[in-house]
Amino acid sequence: MENSGDQFDVIIVGAGVMGSSTAYQTAKRGLKTLLVEQFDLLHHRGSSHGESRTIRATYSQHYYYPLVMESYHLWQQAEAEIGYKVYFKANHFDMGSDDDSNLLAIIDNCRRYSVPHQILRRHEVTEKFSGRIDIPDNWIGVSNEFGGVIKPTKAVAMFQALAHKNGAVLRDNTEVTDIKRDNVRGGVVVSTADGGSFWGKKCVVTVGAWMKKLVKTVSGLELPIQPVETYVCYWRIKEGHEGKYAIGGDFPTFTSHGKLLVYGTPTLEYPGLIKAAAHAGIPCDPDKRQWGPGVLLDSLKEWVEGRFLGMVDSSEPAMKQCCMYSLTPEEDFVIDFLGGEFEKDVVMGGGFSGHGFKMGPVVGRILADMVVHGEAKGVEMRYFSLARFKDNPEAS
Ligand SMILES: Cc1cc2nc3c(=O)[nH]c(=O)nc-3n(C[C@H](O)[C@H](O)[C@H](O)COP(=O)(O)OP(=O)(O)OC[C@H]3O[C@@H](n4cnc5c(N)ncnc54)[C@H](O)[C@@H]3O)c2cc1C
Which of 357, 358, 359 maximizes ligand 1 atoms within 8 Å of its Cβ, making it the mutation to test the pocket? Predict the structure, then answer.
C-alpha cells in the first residue's frame, strides 16, 4: 500500500519515545502508519529529550521486571537494525534505609525472578566502590548487573528513522485538536490545528504531559494524570577523580530510596560531570511552563555531599536541564483502550510517571499489539488499565 494521502491503518499522535517506538512497530508489521507531532521532531518541550535515561530491572512492583527485560532485548534489536548504539551497559545499585519498604520489595523481586544480586552493608559498599559511594550505618545497598544508560534523543531519532524506513509517514509541527468517530466509514477522523484532517482505522494517543487535556477534549474523560515540571542536575566531579565515575568501568547507575528519591548515572554525556537528580517536581500546565522551578535542591546537595564523600562538588549543580513528568496517583502507567464510543479503535499510552523511557520499546510493542490484535500478549494489563481509576475513585 502506498504511504501517502490522508488515510491510514493507524494514526499515532505524539512523537516522543512512546509514539515513535509504536510507529516503528506498526510500520514494521506492514500497517500504513502516520506519526503526528505538534512541535518539531526531537524538540525539548516534552519528556523524551536529553542525553541519558537509566534502565534498571529493580522495581518494587513485580510487574515491571518482565517489561524491562523484554525492553533490553528490544533496545538491542533496534540498535542492530539501525547500526548504532543508544544503550550503554552498567551495573545498577539501589540504596536506602534497611527498613525502607521499596528497597525490601526490590530484594523480594530479585529473589522472585532469580536476579543475581548482592546485599551490602556500609563497609561492603565502601569496599565495592573503592570509597566512591558511602551510605549511612543503618542503610543497605543492593547491587545487580541489570543497569545502564539510554541516550534519549538519539533513541527517539532511531525509532523515527526505523519507522520511516518501514514506510511510516512522519508529520511534525501539526497539532492534533480532536479525534472523532467516523460513523459512516468506521474508524476515526483526526483533526489538526491547521484545519486539516486524517482518517485512521485505528488511532494511538501517546501525548505525554498533554494526555489529560487531549483525552478530556476527545472523550470528556478526566484522567488523573498530572503534568509535573522537573529538572535533572549534573554535578562537577573534583579534579583528579573524574575517571572514577565514568561509564564502562564499575561505577553503576543508581537509585537512592526514601523520602527523597535520588537517581543518577555514571559520567557519559558530559566529561567531568555526574548526573544525580531528585524524582520530584512541581505541577504545571505543559503549555505554560516556568522552565526550571526549584526541585528539593537543598536536600539534593546534602545527598550529593554525603554519598560521594566530597569527591563531587555539591555547592551548586554545574548544569540543569528541564523536563516534564506525567504522574499518575500510584505512578503506574496507563495503557488501555479509550473505550466509550471509540471501543477498541483508540488506544492510549500515558502516565509514564518519570520512569517510562527504559520501557519505550516494549510499550511500542504492546500498543502495536493492541492495534493489531485487540489485546497485548503476555502482559498483565490490569495494572495499567483505566478501570483502576473507576474501581478506586480515591486514585483520581
Ligand atoms: C527529568 C526526567 C528524567 C527521567 N529519567 C528517566 C529514567 O532515568 N529512566 C526512565 O525509564 N525514564 C525516565 N524518565 C521518564 C521518561 O523520559 C518518560 O516516561 C518518557 O519520555 C515519556 O514519553 P512519552 O512519549 O509518553 O512523552 P513525550 O516524550 O512528552 O512525548 C509526547 C509527545 O506528544 C506530543 N503532543 C502532545 N500533544 C499533542 C497533540 N495534541 N498533537 C500532536 N502531538 C502532541 C508532544 O509534543 C510530545 O512530543 C524521565 C523523565 C524526566 C522528565
Answer: 357
